[in-house]
């Protein structure tokens, strides 16, 4: 049953990045849109994510619950030494969601719309930035459980070049996902062209920040190159990610947009696989050289069995209705 729990953990992280990340990316796209086109972008974005945006946070909740119940050592280590970026990320999620609701459903349309719009845009940037910083921190080897000062324990555990580079890379990937998703939601050719340009911009940014991640990894002795390029799975994943990107842009130039979302999601999945496969089952690298493994930090077997059956039965009840929700709201209007 431990493999069931770990599979749900990996799936929840992946789906939150693909779905929730695309939602954050929509705000990033709006942030980098000119004022004359911002209203059109906002309307297209709202049509795409408005009805289902809150459902995407379900995957984050599942991730937190699994870590709390099944891997308490990992949960406590992250909660203690990464509490600052975690709090900032959670504040960003709350601020973004609140602004999203108020700017669409506020009964009074006044100057507060100006504030709601800015909170939504900037929190859409800050949240995936710190999500990436957290992800980079667990891999960076900078978490010092033996630190004797506040700065060493709670600041430099996440405030380092590698974590920041991963955060910026995450922002670019979220923006790229959102731009690709929004192309399919656009009805006018002018809107499609605008989102294609945004996708190109975010694609270039992702490549540049991806290179920065490798440079920062080299500087801080993170064996990222070994994880990605010195095992067959990593090489295959990188190759497939590159080929899917080429195919994506080929189909885009041909005007075929139906499979773009699948290709974009597949590409990001392969990137995550390339990074994480060689590192698995280790979840956190510590500064003293130790690693916290999923298998070594797992909860007692009775707890895992109960959680595993709960996840299996819960998925049978929730996933079909969640799929139906997405299906209904993605149907084109007559």
Automatic annotation (TrEMBL):
Locations listed in the record: Cell membrane
Record keywords, A-Z: Cell membrane, Membrane, Transmembrane, Transmembrane helix
InterPro entries documented for this protein: Cyt-d_oxidase_su2
GO molecular-function term, one example from the UniProt record: electron transfer activity
Example GO BP: aerobic electron transport chain
Transmembrane residue ranges: 6-32, 53-74, 80-102, 122-141, 161-183, 204-221, 233-252, 259-280, 307-327
Membrane topology: Multi-pass membrane protein
Chief location of this protein within or outside the cell: membrane
GO cellular component annotations of the record: cytochrome complex; plasma membrane
Family: Belongs to the cytochrome ubiquinol oxidase subunit 2 family.
Name recorded for this polypeptide: Cytochrome d ubiquinol oxidase subunit II
Species for this entry: Pedobacter planticolens
């Amino acid at each position: 049953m431990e493999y069931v729990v770990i599979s749900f953990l990996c799936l929840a992280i992946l789906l939150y990045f693909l779905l929730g990340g695309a939602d954050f990316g929509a705000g990033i796209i709006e942030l980098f849109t000119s004022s004359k086109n911002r209203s059109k972008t906002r309307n297209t974005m709202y049509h795409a994510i408005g009805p289902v945006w809150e459902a995407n946070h379900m995957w984050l909740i599942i991730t937190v619950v699994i870590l709390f119940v099944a891997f308490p050592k990992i949960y406590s280590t992250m909660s203690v030494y990464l509490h600052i970026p975690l709090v900032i990320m959670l504040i960003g999620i709350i601020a973004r969601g609140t602004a999203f609701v108020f700017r669409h459903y506020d009964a009074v349309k006044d100057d507060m719309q100006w504030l709601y719009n800015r909170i939504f845009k900037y929190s859409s940037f800050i949240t995936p930035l710190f999500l990436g910083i957290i992800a980079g921190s667990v891999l960076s080897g900078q978490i010092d459980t033996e630190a004797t000062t506040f700065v060493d324990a709670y600041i430099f555990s996440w405030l380092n070049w590698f974590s920041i580079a991963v955060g910026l890379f995450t922002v670019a990937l979220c923006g790229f996902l959102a731009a690709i998703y929004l192309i399919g939601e656009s009805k006018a050719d002018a809107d499609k062209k605008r989102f294609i340009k945004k996708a190109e911009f975010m694609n270039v940014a992702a490549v540049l920040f991806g290179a920065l991640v490798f440079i920062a990894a080299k500087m801080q002795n993170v064996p990222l190159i070994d994880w990605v390029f010195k095992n067959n799975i990593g090489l295959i994943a990188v190759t497939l990610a590159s080929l899917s990107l080429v195919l994506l842009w080929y189909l885009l130039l041909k005007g075929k947009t139906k499979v773009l979302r699948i290709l974009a999601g597949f590409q990001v999945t392969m990137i995550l696989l390339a990074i994480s496969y060689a590192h698995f089952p280790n979840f956190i690298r510590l500064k003293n050289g130790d690693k916290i493994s999923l298998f070594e930090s797992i909860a007692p077997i009775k707890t895992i069995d109960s959680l595993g059956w709960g996840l299996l039965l819960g998925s049978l009840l929730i996933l079909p209705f969640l799929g139906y929700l997405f299906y209904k709201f993605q149907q084109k209007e007559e």
